[in-house]
C-alpha cells in the first residue's frame, strides 16, 4: 500500500508525540530527494527520515544514521540556515491529505524569532519537500517545479504555497452524510471506486475495507444501494474516521507466507485469515515493511543475470527438444523400408532387367504394394538400398530417443533452477544456484585457474511442527540433496509437490507415528516452496525416505520413487514456526 491519508495520520500522531518541543540538531541530505533530521527531544536523540522519491515517498522515525555527502546540496544548506537549531513547535496534517507540516521556531541572522514550515507531500511522482516562511511563501524545495512542468502549481522560491484541488475531493474528516450521499453514492461506478475517487486520502485498499466492514461488496454499484445499506455504509465510514480523529491506530503488516503484501495503520477485516504482525508505532511498521521489501528487491535484482542465463538456456532446450521430436517423428515410417527390402528379396527373382517397379503382396498385411526400383541397379542392390535406409533411420531413432531423454532431463533441471531462483531468500542461496549452474557446465566458473572450488554453505530452512517435530526444507537442488540424503534418515517422511519443481521437505520422526496435523503442515510447506505456490491447491506426494533412490549420474536433487501417498495442500505456511539459524 502506498502512503494513504490514514497512514499519514498515524505517522503524524506518533511524530507529534515524540518530536514536538525537540531541537533540530543536525540536517543532512543523503540523496537528492531525501532528508535526515537529527532531533534532541526529551533527553533522547531521534532521527526523522523523509523522502520525496517518486516511486517510494515516505516519512518515519528511525535509529539508522546515514552518511552525509562530502559537499552538502544547496537545499540542505538552505535548510540548515532556516531551520538548523530550531525548535519543533507543531506537527500537523491538513485534513486527511498526504501532507505533513512541521512548524519550526528559529532565530534569523538578526537573532529574531521567526517561524518556518518544513512540509512533505507524499504524492507519488508529485512528492516534494518544501520550506515555507511565515507567510506561506516558498523559500525553496527539494524539487523545483516550474510552469512548464506543471501548469497547476509552480513550486519555486517566492511563489505562494497552496494545495492544488485538481480532483475536487471531499475531506473525509468533515464530510456530512448528505454530502457523502450526493457525492459518493450518486456516482455511476462501483462503491469501492466511488469512495476512493471522492474522498481525500482514502486508498483503494481502505475503500474496500470500509465496504467489508459494512458487509457490502465493493464491486456493487454505488448508485444502486438501498437506503438502509447507504445508512449503514456511512456510519461504518464515520466510525473509522472517528478512530482516525482520536488517534486510535493499530499498525500492522499482512503477509502471504513470508512475503509482506500489505501494511496498514488500522486492522483490516478484509484481510481476515491472513498472517499479520502488529507494531507499536507506525514508524516501526514502515521500517520493517520497507526493509523486507528492499531485501526481496535486492535478491531479485542480484538474480537478474542468473535468471537471464536460465531463461536463454531453457528456450534453447525447448527449441532443441522440438527439433529432436520432429526428427524422431520422421523416422516412424522406417519399417516400410525393411519390408520393401524383404519383398524385393522374396519376389524380385523374376524381374526383367531395368524394371522400375515391383508389384507384390505384402505378406504381413496381405495387401498389394508397388515398390519403386532403381533401373540402373540389380535386384539385390535395390533390396540393399532399402535395408540400408531402414538401418540408418533405426540408428537415428535410437540415438534421438536417448538425446530426447537427455534434453528433457536438462529442461526439467533448468525449470527446477528457475524455481530455485524464485525461492531464493539470501545471496548465499544465489551463490549456491550459480555453483550448480557451473557444475552442470551451463556457465563458466568465475574462479581463476584450477583452484579447488569451495562449496557455498547456505543452510536449508528449518521449521517446527505444531507438536515439535523438526521439518527441513531445501530452497534449491543442492539443499534438496542435503535435506533428503544428509538430514533425512530412512524412517523419516519426505514430501514434494507432484510433477512440478519444488523443495524437498523432510520431517524427522525417528520411530514416532506422526499425527495428521504434521502431514498437513509438511504438505503446506512443500506446496508453498514449489512452482505451484501461487495456485489455490497443490497435490503433494509423500513417502518414507527409504523409498527414494537417486539414479547414477542424475542431476542434484533428482530422485525416483514408486511407493508413495498423496494429499492436497494449500500453499500457505501461516502459523508454521520457523527456527532461525544461530
Question: Strands of the largest sheet, in order across it?
Answer: 20-19-17-18-16-15-21
Sheet having the most strands: 7 strands, antiparallel
Work out the helix count: 13
Derived structural class: alpha+beta
Shape summary? elongated
Beta strand %: 15-25%
Number of strands: 21
- Cα(first) to Cα(last) distance is 33 Å
Q: Average pLDDT value?
A: 91
Helix content class: 25-40%
Chain-wise SSE layout:
Layout: H1 5-19, E1 23-31, E2 34-41, E3 44-51, E4 58-62, H2 74-83, E5 87-92, E6 99-107, E7 113-121, E8 128-132, E9 138-141, H3 177-183, H4 191-198, H5 204-213, H6 227-246, E10 252-256, E11 259-264, E12 275-278, H7 282-302, H8 304-330, H9 335-347, E13 357-362, E14 367-372, H10 379-423, H11 427-439, E15 461-464, E16 470-473, H12 477-487, E17 493-497, E18 505-507, H13 516-528, E19 538-544, E20 565-569, E21 577-578
Antiparallel strand pairs: 1-2, 2-3, 3-4, 5-6, 6-7, 7-8, 8-9, 10-11, 10-12, 13-14, 15-16, 15-21, 16-18, 17-18, 17-19, 19-20
Quick summary:
The chain has 582 residues and is an alpha+beta fold.
Question: Could you describe the 3D structure shown?
Answer:
The chain is an alpha+beta fold and 582 residues long. It is 37% helix and 21% strand. The chain has helices spanning 5-19, 74-83, 177-183, 191-198, 204-213, 227-246, 282-302, 304-330, 335-347, 379-423, 427-439, 477-487, 516-528, and strands spanning 23-31, 34-41, 44-51, 58-62, 87-92, 99-107, 113-121, 128-132, 138-141, 252-256, 259-264, 275-278, 357-362, 367-372, 461-464, 470-473, 493-497, 505-507, 538-544, 565-569, 577-578. The strands form five sheets. Strands 20-19-17-18-16-15-21 form a seven-stranded antiparallel beta sheet. A five-stranded antiparallel beta sheet has the order 5-6-7-8-9, covered by helices on one side. Helix 4 crosses helix 5, helix 8 (304-330) runs antiparallel to helix 10 (379-423) and helix 9 (335-347) packs antiparallel against helix 10. Residues 448-454 have low confidence and may be disordered.
Amino acid at each position: 500500500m502506498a502512503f494513504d491519508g490514514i497512514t499519514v495520520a498515524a505517522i503524524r500522531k506518533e511524530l507529534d508525540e515524540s518530536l514536538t518541543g525537540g531541537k533540530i540538531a543536525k540536517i543532512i541530505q543523503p540523496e537528492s530527494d531525501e532528508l535526515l533530521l537529527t532531533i534532541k527531544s526529551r533527553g533522547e536523540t531521534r532521527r526523522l527520515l523523509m523522502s520525496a522519491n517518486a516511486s517510494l515517498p515516505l516519512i518515519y522515525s528511525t535509529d539508522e544514521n546515514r552518511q552525509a555527502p562530502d559537499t552538502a546540496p544547496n537545499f540542505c544548506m538552505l535548510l540548515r540556515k532556516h531551520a538548523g537549531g530550531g525548535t519543533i513547535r507543531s506537527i500537523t496534517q491538513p485534513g486527511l491529505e498526504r501532507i505533513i507540516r512541521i512548524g519550526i521556531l528559529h532565530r534569523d541572522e538578526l537573532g529574531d524569532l521567526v517561524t518556518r514550515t518544513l512540509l512533505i507531500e507524499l504524492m507519488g511522482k508529485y512528492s516534494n519537500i518544501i520550506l515555507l516562511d511565515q507567510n506561506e511563501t516558498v523559500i525553496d524545495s527539494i524539487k523545483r517545479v516550474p510552469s512548464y512542468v506543471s501548469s497547476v502549481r509552480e513550486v519555486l522560491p517566492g511563489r505562494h504555497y497552496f494545495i492544488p484541488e485538481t480532483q475536487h475531493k471531499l475531506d473525509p474528516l468533515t464530510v456530512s452524510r448528505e454530502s457523502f450521499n450526493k457525492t459518493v453514492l450518486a456516482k455511476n461506478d462501483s462503491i469501492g471506486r466511488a469512495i476512493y475517487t471522492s474522498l481525500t486520502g482514502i486508498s483503494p485498499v481502505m475503500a474496500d475495507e470500509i465496504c467489508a466492514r459494512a458487509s457490502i461488496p465493493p464491486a456493487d454499484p454505488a448508485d444502486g444501494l438501498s437506503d438502509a445499506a447507504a445508512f449503514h455504509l456511512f456510519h461504518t465510514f464515520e466510525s473509522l474516521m472517528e478512530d482516525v480523529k482520536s488517534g486510535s491506530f493499530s499498525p500492522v503488516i499482512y503477509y502471504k507466507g513470508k512475503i509482506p503484501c500489505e501494511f496498514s495503520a488500522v486492522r483490516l477485516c478484509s484481510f481476515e485469515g491472513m498472517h499479520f504482525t502488529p507494531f507499536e508505532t507506525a514508524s516501526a511498521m514502515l521500517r520493517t515493511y520497507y526493509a523486507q521489501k528492499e531485501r526481496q528487491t535486492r535478491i531479485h535484482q542480484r538474480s537478474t543475470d542468473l535468471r537471464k542465463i536460465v531463461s536463454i538456456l531453457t528456450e534453447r532446450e525447448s527449441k532443441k527438444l522440438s527439433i529432436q521430436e520432429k526428427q524422431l517423428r520422421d523416422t516412424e515410417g522406417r519399417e516400410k523400408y525393411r519390408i520393401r527390402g524383404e519383398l524385393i528379396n522374396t519376389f524380385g527373382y523374376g524381374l526383367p532387367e531395368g524394371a522400375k517397379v515391383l508389384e507384390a503382396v505384402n505378406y504381413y498385411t496381405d495387401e498389394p504394394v508397388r515398390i519403386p526400383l532403381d533401373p540402373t541397379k540389380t535386384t539385390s542392390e535395390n533390396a540393399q538400398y532399402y535395408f540400408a535406409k531402414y538401418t540408418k533411420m533405426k540408428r537415428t531413432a535410437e540415438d534421438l530417443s536417448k538425446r530426447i531423454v537427455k534434453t528433457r532431463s536438462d529442461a526439467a533441471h533448468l525449470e527446477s533452477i528457475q524455481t530455485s531462483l524464485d525461492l531464493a531468500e539470501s545471496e548465499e542461496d544465489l551463490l549456491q544456484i550459480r555453483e550448480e549452474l557451473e557444475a552442470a557446465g551451463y556457465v563458466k566458473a568465475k574462479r581463476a585457474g584450477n583452484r579447488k572450488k569451495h562449496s557455498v554453505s547456505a543452510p536449508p530452512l528449518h521449521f517446527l511442527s505444531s507438536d515439535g517435530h523438526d521439518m527441513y526444507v531445501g530452497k534449491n537442488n543442492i539443499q534438496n540433496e542435503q535435506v533428503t540424503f544428509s538430514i533425512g534418515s530412512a524412517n523419516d517422511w519426505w514430501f514434494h509437490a507432484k510433477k512440478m519443481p519444488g523443495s524437498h521437505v523432510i520431517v524427522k520422526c525417528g520411530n514416532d507415528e506422526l499425527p495428521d496435523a504434521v502431514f498437513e503442515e509438511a504438505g503446506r510447506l512443500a506446496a508453498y516452496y514449489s512452482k505451484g505456490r501461487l495456485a489455490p491447491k497443490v497435490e503433494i506426494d509423500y513417502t518414507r525416505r527409504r523409498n527414494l533412490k537417486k539414479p547414477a549420474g542424475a542431476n542434484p536433487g533428482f530422485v525416483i520413487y514408486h511407493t508413495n501417498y498423496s494429499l492436497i495442500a494449500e500453499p500457505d505456511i501461516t502459523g508454521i514456526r520457523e527456527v532461525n539459524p544461530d
